[in-house]
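Reviewers of the previous submission asked for a worked example of the structure-prediction workflow described in the proposal, so we include one complete record here. The input consisted solely of the amino acid sequence. No template or homolog information was supplied to the procedure at any stage.
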Amino acid sequence: MDHMKFIDEKGRFFGVLNIIDLLIILLVLGAIAGIFAKTSVLKRINRNFTEVPARMQLIVENVRQTTADAVKPGDIIKEVRSGEQLGVVKEVKVEDYKEKAADSQGNWHMSPVPDKKTIFITLEGNLKSYNNEFRAGQTDIKIGSKVNVKSNMYTFEGYILKIETIKQGNGK
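From that input alone, the workflow returned the following structure tokens.
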């Protein structure tokens, strides 16, 4: 008794399916999988969102004085990659940037770094809330999140210190 060959002399797999039929079946299955993948990705990307009025505070550390001087109330701040607006600058507070440094006795202290500043920026704007999570583009907007932000005059990396939603009507 002959053993069944994988491909017979007529080019059929196991004597049942020819190569062209197999390629057509694989192409159809690939198209179905591609359509399914595309629609499921689009559902995640195009999720419904609500805009929530919010106030947040960013901290930007270890920047030059010129960068600190450039940030002004009224500036529009956007997330770098998506270009989505995070808010409008309401308040800017600049302090000396400090790092740990040892004194002559070997004790550690927080000491100012010459020509470096820390900026505290308060923003107000509408954040996009997806399933009760704030996002700007692909960036999570959460306390402690690192965000790359820009305006028309500057760009820098900061961290979110505070987020509070603003109740409609009384501004608090």
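The longest helix spans residues 19-45. We consider this example representative of the routine output the project will generate in years two and three.
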